[in-house]
Amino acid sequence: MASHSRCKRYVRKDGDIVWIKLAVATVRDESGKKLDYFVLASRTSPRPDGLRRPLQESEEKFRRLFDSAMTAS
């Protein structure tokens, strides 16, 4: 069974950031033919704090810049 996993960041409607670990595996029969995919999503802890704060600051700067660009038009 071949598999792949990754962490993804989702932003909730209230602005909170949620980290989800996605694991995907290909299910095959004895001959190797693909039968289906198995997907598991689980909530995981946030990225290390050293990465989280700069990301939030960058997002806030982008939002301010975007908002000011829209009003300048």
H/E series: EEEH
| Total individual domains | 1
Described by its quaternary structure, the protein is: single chain
Stretches where pLDDT falls below 50 for ≥5 residues?
A: none
Largest sheet: 3 strands, antiparallel
DSSP strand tally: 3
Q: Judging by the overall fold, what is the CATH architecture?
A: Ribbon
User: What is the 3D shape?
Assistant: elongated
CATH topology: Complement Module, domain 1
How much strand? 35-45%
Main sheet strand line-up: 1-2-3
How widely separated are the two ends? 54 Å
**Helix percentage range:** 25-40%
Mean model confidence by pLDDT: 79
| CATH class descriptor | Mainly Beta
Q: What would you report as the Rg, rounded to the nearest angstrom?
A: 19 Å
Class by alpha and beta content: alpha+beta
Number of helices: 1
Structure description:
By secondary structure, the protein is an alpha+beta fold. It has a single domain (3-72), classed as Complement Module, domain 1 (Ribbon). Helices cover 33% and strands 44% of the residues. It contains 1 helix and 3 strands, in the order E-E-E-H. The protein has one helix at residues 49-72; strands at 3-11, 17-28, 34-44. The chain has a 3-stranded antiparallel beta sheet with strand order 1-2-3, with no helix packed on it. The chain is elongated, with a radius of gyration of 19 Å. The termini are far apart.
